[in-house]
Amino acid sequence: MIVVVFISVFAIVYYINFRRSRKRLYELADRIPGPFDYPLIGSILLTLGKDPLELVSYLMQLMHRLPSPMRAWLGPFLLVVVDRPEMVQDILSSPDCVQKPFMYDFFRISKGLFGAPADTWKRHRKLLNTSFSPAVLKSVVPKLNAKAEQFAHELNEYAGGDCFDVHVLLARYTLVTISSTTLGTDLSVEKRAVLEEYSSNAIRLFTACFERIYKAWLHPEFIYRLTPAYKEEQHRMQLFKQMSRKIINMRHAAAAENKAKDDPQDSEPEDKQELPKAKIFIERLEEISRDPNNNIDEDGFQQHIDTMMFGGNDTSAQALSNTLLTLGMYPDWQERVYQEIMEVVPTGHISYEDLTKLTCMEMFLKETLRLLPITGLIARAPVKEVQAREFTIPSGAIVLIPFLKIHRDKTIWGPDAEVFNPENFLPERCAERHPYAFIPFSQGPRNCIGMKYGWISMKILLCHVVRMYRIATDIRLPDIQLSLSLVMKLNKKHLIRLEPRIDVR
């Protein structure tokens, strides 16, 4: 009895002191509207018993009913949902709001650009930015064309037949492409089954990591390690890292071979040597990792590669798969995209300069990303109080920015916000909207480092495929439900049919 009383008194005193230490946070939180929350557990009951599909639908309805910003409590953690574009700009452009919250650690890549602490991220991002400079992007265009052309011809196997899931093929394609253009390694020598297993395993791994976020009882690491989910995560993480380790070993082997071939006597005079070429991501990473001041250990080096592989593989595969699906849904728009391609580059490889002329394709891509976003939401953890219009976001809060809601907000996109219409991205309409009303790759200093690379690679692939095939599908946009995950998933496979436009033998 004495022990119970002692524990109860201790808990009460601890809770009172805990509240006092966060007095400012509670004061500012009270000024932000939100749903009813319970002591200790906050608003967590709102999400209990809902699977990822139900959660997206429920949260969308909730956000459309409540004002913005919206407050919610996840246990002791204050969540502030911000979906007004002008406030989103205040958040994402603030130097005090580039830190990501603790939940990003669940993905186990906290030394890469995706989840690194703000100070580490700032240093490494600045050093790695040059690996996606215009010079580098231009240099990879020929290789992107070669891979896309090869992929388009491989699709001939499926042309004229039944529906097939194009995402499986694109996941393998984007993995090979990202590795050859940014990681200096040709993975096309690997067996198809090995590449497909890597992509499938990575998707399942990070989907499970994401689901841990809204299961607050699994947040404490010591509890999570007791669950079967942790054991499965460790198994999948081991499989996931095998590919980056293979790339590192291949790079080491190639470097040793080149070193053995080098002969100082064969070197040209200094005045005749070529200018240094622009370094791709892996070359720049190898260069900066040799400087001990940059604090990139072996594990950090591998995590940078893991981040690049998953970020460039699953996101690009999903975006391209979604776009081929929507091209099949809207044949009139598909024909407009095709005619533009035939006007700009009817045959051969697509040049870097050609890409800027594909305005109809870009509008179509953007509309697909608006209604079927790759990322449903992102989060930031302000290290100081941040002023977002009339609201002060306290330090210690977690700011959630729901792209899915912003991209379908009728106050921004009009009464037909749920209707697929690429004309939403006509120049005159874009000029009328806030620039942060559409940010599929995030925005501000901590946006996606490979954003421009992503646009280029997607356009080149679409040129080669649409130029050779008509795309059809039986799926309609209202049939699709989105599942909340690190990369948004559909409730349906990407089932399309292909009809050759030309003889592709």
UniProtKB/TrEMBL annotation:
Molecular function GO terms recorded: heme binding; iron ion binding; monooxygenase activity; oxidoreductase activity, acting on paired donors, with incorporation or reduction of molecular oxygen
Q: Which UniProt keywords apply?
A: Endoplasmic reticulum, Heme, Iron, Membrane, Metal-binding, Microsome, Monooxygenase, Oxidoreductase
- Statement: the UniProt record of this protein carries the keyword Metal-binding: yes
* Gene3D superfamilies reported in the protein's UniProt record: Cytochrome P450 (1.10.630.10)
Location comes to: Endoplasmic reticulum membrane; Microsome membrane
Q: Which residues bind heme?
A: C448
Q: Which InterPro entries match?
A: Cyt_P450, Cyt_P450_CS, Cyt_P450_E_grp-II, Cyt_P450_sf, Cytochrome_P450_Monoox
Cellular component (GO) terms are:
endoplasmic reticulum membrane
Instruction: Provide ranges: composition bias, Basic and acidic residues.
Output: 258-276
**Primary subcellular site in the record, as a coarse category:** endoplasmic reticulum
| Region of interest (Disordered), residue spans | 254-276
PANTHER family according to UniProt: CYTOCHROME P450 4C3-RELATED (PTHR24291:SF189), CYTOCHROME P450 FAMILY 4 (PTHR24291)
Q: What does this protein do?
A: May be involved in the metabolism of insect hormones and in the breakdown of synthetic insecticides.
Q: What is this protein called?
A: Uncharacterized protein
Q: Which organism is it from?
A: Anopheles dirus
